[in-house]
């Protein structure tokens, strides 16, 4: 397997549309519990409510300057971490989380309980579930696990 070489950088406002495409690719690959109308609802909500402007963004780019994944943080909370479906399992998520933990000093993350791949990822990296919400932040019945570094 060939290693992917990439860099972590800040996200420019003109790259937000790319982030939304990566978000959708990632969600379609990992959020199998969502129906099409849910994905479209969340995509529209992210765009309309300018979620990318509410967090500190960083991304992983490959040697061709293509964004492979991104994260968004607010204080010590990881608010979003998404990796393009084609880059899942290639170290992009691990690089982003390492940056969040070591550089941004993140200690908390909320994750969809039904996204077992993400739950396992965070557990593997030292997070523990401290509480659970039946509804997500939009009031939809997608339980959220509130996790913190153990």
TrEMBL record:
UniProt keyword annotations, A-Z: Acyltransferase, Transferase
Coiled-coil parts of chain: none
Upper lineage: Bacteria, Pseudomonadati, Bacteroidota, Cytophagia, Cytophagales
A GO molecular-function annotation: acyltransferase activity, transferring groups other than amino-acyl groups
Name assigned to this protein: GNAT family N-acetyltransferase
Source organism superkingdom: Bacteria
Domain N-acetyltransferase: 6-150
């Amino acid at each position: 397997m060939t290693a992917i070489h990439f860099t972590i950088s800040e996200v420019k406002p003109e790259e937000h549309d790319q982030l939304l495409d990566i978000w959708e690719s990632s969600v379609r690959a990992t959020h199998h519990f969502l129906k099409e109308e849910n994905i479209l609802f969340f995509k529209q909500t992210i765009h309309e409510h300018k979620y990318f402007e509410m967090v500190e963004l960083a991304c992983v780019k490959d040697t061709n300057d293509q964004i492979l994944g991104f994260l968004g943080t607010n204080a010590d909370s990881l608010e979003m971490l998404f990796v393009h479906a084609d880059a899942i399992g290639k170290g992009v998520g691990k690089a982003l989380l390492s940056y969040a933990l070591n550089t941004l000093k993140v200690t908390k993350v909320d994750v969809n309980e039904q996204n077992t791949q993400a739950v396992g990822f965070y557990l593997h990296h030292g997070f523990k579930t401290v509480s659970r919400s039946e509804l997500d932040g939009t009031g939809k019945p997608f339980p959220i696990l509130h996790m913190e570094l153990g």
